[in-house]
């Protein structure tokens, strides 16, 4: 019941339309990545200075199921939690956030080892395969401010790296349309309900996951082979 309810909430018309598209020969990869067919993005010209100890990045851009799944497969990432950022603590609830008027965006909190992956590399993954930064207040089938593209910076260095990278990508015309990703201070991150955590891992056959999120992980493997962590290693990290 939980699984079908969540799919209906996210994309009420998806299953029948998906069936018609498959009959017409449209692949999941094509459907899920429309608008993301760009040349490989450059490395960030501005990146983080060496740091000791685990660091945290908070990013938003569409459904947090897909974001969590992508970043769990990135080398150096120790833990990814789905949640809400941008609004107040008392509205950090899925039903309230789904109304689109709380200020929250579905987000992920990424705990990572800066000796293995840098903040700039995480942003490169984010812009390359995790989200379409040119879509305003939506991502693919999901529409509303809660699905907007946002980098929530935790300190001045993260702000500097994020704004510089967006400027770099814009100057290079890396995308056919303007980047609308917001760069705003992190005021708080509130973990989502337990049934949202690792949703893609627990429901790999859900049509929403098959068409919208699984292709992102496949693209991560293709575009970032040196950073990609296979499924069996992701499980060991999560259980650590």
From TrEMBL:
The EC number(s) this enzyme carries: 1.8.4.11
Annotated PROSITE patterns: PROKAR_LIPOPROTEIN
GO molecular function: peptide-methionine (S)-S-oxide reductase activity
Position of the signal peptide: 1-34
Peptide methionine sulphoxide reductase MsrA domain segment(s): 57-208
Enzyme class: oxidoreductase
InterPro entries on file: Met_Sox_Rdtase_MsrA_dom, Met_Sox_Rdtase_MsrA_sf
Catalytic activity: L-methionyl-[protein] + [thioredoxin]-disulfide + H2O = L-methionyl-(S)-S-oxide-[protein] + [thioredoxin]-dithiol; [thioredoxin]-disulfide + L-methionine + H2O = L-methionine (S)-S-oxide + [thioredoxin]-dithiol
Active-site residue numbers: 63
One Pfam entry name: PMSR
Residues annotated as transmembrane: none
Keywords for this protein: Oxidoreductase, Signal
Family per record: Belongs to the MsrA Met sulfoxide reductase family.
HAMAP family recorded: MsrA
PANTHER family for this protein: PEPTIDE METHIONINE SULFOXIDE REDUCTASE, PEPTIDE METHIONINE SULFOXIDE REDUCTASE MSRA 2
Cited function: Has an important function as a repair enzyme for proteins that have been inactivated by oxidation. Catalyzes the reversible oxidation-reduction of methionine sulfoxide in proteins to methionine.
Name of the protein in its database record: Peptide methionine sulfoxide reductase MsrA
Annotated organism of origin: Dyella telluris
Gene name of this polypeptide: msrA
């Amino acid at each position: 019941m939980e699984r079908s309810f969540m799919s209906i909430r996210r994309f009420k018309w998806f299953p029948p339309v998906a069936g018609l598209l498959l009959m017409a020969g449209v692949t999941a990869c094509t459907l899920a990545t429309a608008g993301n067919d760009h040349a490989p993005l450059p490395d960030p010209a501005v990146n983080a200075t060496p740091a000791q100890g685990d660091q945290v990045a908070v990013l938003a851009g569409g459904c947090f199921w897909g974001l969590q799944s992508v970043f769990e497969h990135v080398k150096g990432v120790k833990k990814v939690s789905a949640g809400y950022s941008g609004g107040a603590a008392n509205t950090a609830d899925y039903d309230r956030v789904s109304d689109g008027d709380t200020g929250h965006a579905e987000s992920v909190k990424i705990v990572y080892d800066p000796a293995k992956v840098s903040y700039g590399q995480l942003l490169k993954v984010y812009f390359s395969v995790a989200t379409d930064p040119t879509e305003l207040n939506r991502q693919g089938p999901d529409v509303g401010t809660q699905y907007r593209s946002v980098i929530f910076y935790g300190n001045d260095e993260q702000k500097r790296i994020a704004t510089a990278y967006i400027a770099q990508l814009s100057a290079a015309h890396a995308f056919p349309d303007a980047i609308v990703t917001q760069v705003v201070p992190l005021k708080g991150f509130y973990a989502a309900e337990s049934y949202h955590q690792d949703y893609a891992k627990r429901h790999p056959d859900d049509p929403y996951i098959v068409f919208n999120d699984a292709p992102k992980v496949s693209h991560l493997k293709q575009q970032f082979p040196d950073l990609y962590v296979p499924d069996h290693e992701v499980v060991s990290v999560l259980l650590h």
